[in-house]
Specification:
Distance between the termini: 41 Å
Radius of gyration: 23 Å
Structural class: mainly alpha
Strand order of the largest sheet: 1-2
Number of domains: 2
Oligomer: single chain
Length: 422
């Protein structure tokens, strides 16, 4: 809103610093600082309200260190994150930009789904919360909205990069872009020479209809990515500061990728597709990073508040839609490797348990406990039998979280490096 107000007033008055306010870097920094302040100031008020409403976490005794001390800790703290994202974005971002609009819709949409789930669990004492089919319906609905918006919106376009190769070498000498904006089903794929994959190529046999079928596949991928990442983020939210810290790291990486994709000079240097307008998403990324870091003020060990599904589903949805909007969804298995491993550990554990129970009459485990972060918390001396029974000594939660953050930083660095390694 301030962005639009300054632009409007500049038509009639010579406002000092107007050009600075239009700058993406200035607005991103402002969004980050304001999100941090909102999270830290209003976070305490929201925590007090949650305590007053007696919206506390129910803890099962799983034999982990300091676990029972978390009983009664306020949950639904995702409200802090959502507020700290929305306020700076509404103030500093270009609200006519289609990518900004998508991110705002995603934040509110997934926030409502997560809030309803937490509300049913904590207020109505319904252990199941929001039924699984309703969650899936909401996630699929968001994926459909995102996919169709990118297909239909005239703002959601790219400019295809053209390589200019020297006569005596195979090395790319220069990269330019076509003058016209085009609708495209291309996406960035790591480790390949041209760094792009076109979904429409899967339907070359369809002739003139290949592009249309390519968009259908793109929409399907959007649904798949939104559903997978939001659920994975939900599973990762099991230790103090793990999900929020990991999201901050991912947010920095996505902000860098959005800035590079939205800047014709940097996109040309890296030989990646130029996507006009995505630079505006960096402002939203600044708000996301500030919100998650501010939330960690209260969520770091020992946590004073948990984000609940209100936060975890929202953060997962934001990451997914952000990556889809900048055509980097195929980098998610690397960037969100922690989320992927957490989900995979749950799938393998449940699948193996059901298989062995059906075959041998007794369910067996691969890990001591899943998601995999609990495997390290429990330790091999817990008495639980599993194929993988190490480490023998439990690892303290705070140390585990920091180690997982370090892994996340390494994966983030690899994600950015893939833009040049091909």
């Amino acid at each position: 809103m301030l962005y639009h107000l300054i632009n409007y007033l500049d038509r009639f008055y010579d406002i000092p610093g107007q050009q600075m306010f239009i700058s993406i870097s200035f607005r991103t920094g402002s969004a980050f600082i304001l999100a941090l302040v909102v999270a830290m100031i209003f976070g305490r008020k929201i925590i007090n309200w949650l305590q007053k409403m007696q919206i506390g976490e129910t803890i099962r005794d799983l034999g982990m260190e300091d676990q029972l001390q978390k009983k009664g800790t306020p949950t639904m703290g995702g409200l802090i994150i959502i507020l700290a994202i929305l306020v700076p974005t509404l103030l500093f971002a270009d609200l006519t930009n289609i990518y900004t609009i998508l991110m705002l819709i995603t934040t509110v949409w997934m926030g409502i789904i997560g809030f309803l789930d937490d509300y049913l669990k904590k207020i109505y004492r319904n252990k199941e919360g929001l039924k699984g089919e309703f969650k899936i319906f909401g996630q699929v609905g968001l994926g459909l909205i995102v996919g169709l918006t990118l297909y239909l919106s005239p703002q959601a376009v790219i400019r295809e990069n053209v390589e200019h190769i020297g006569a005596t070498t195979q090395r790319v000498e220069d990269v330019s872009y076509k003058t016209e904006n085009v609708k495209s089903t291309k996406t960035t794929i790591p480790f390949f020479k041209n760094n792009n994959l076109d979904y429409a190529n899967a339907f070359k046999w369809a002739g003139d209809k290949a592009q249309r079928y390519g968009w259908i596949l793109f929409v399907f991928m959007a649904i798949l990515v939104v559903t997978a990442v939001s659920n994975s983020a939900n599973l990762t939210d099991g230790m103090d500061g793990l999900a929020s810290g990991s999201t901050a790291i991912i947010g920095v990486t996505l902000g860098v990728l959005a800035y590079l994709s939205g800047n014709v000079n940097y996109a040309g240097y890296l030989n990646i597709m130029y996507i006009p307008g995505t630079g505006e998403m960096v402002v939203f990324a600044g708000a996301l990073i500030g919100a998650t870091i501010g939330f960690m003020w209260y969520n770091s060990y020992p946590a004073q508040v948990f984000m609940g599904d209100t936060g975890s589903l929202t953060l997962g949805g934001i990451i997914a839609v952000f990556a889809i909007a900048i055509h980097k969804e195929l980098l998610i298995p690397i960037l969100c490797g922690l989320f992927f491993i957490e989900s995979l550990s749950v799938i393998l554990q449940r699948g193996y348990f059901k298989f062995t129970k059906k075959k041998y009459g007794e369910g067996k485990r691969i890990f001591l406990m899943s998601p995999i972060h609990h495997h390290f918390q429990v330790g091999g001396k817990s008495g639980i039998k599993a194929i993988i029974n190490r480490p023998f000594q439990p690892v303290h939660e705070s140390k585990l979280v920091v180690r997982f953050w370090l892994i996340g930083i390494i994966l983030a660095a690899i994600t950015i490096i893939t833009l040049k390694v091909r």
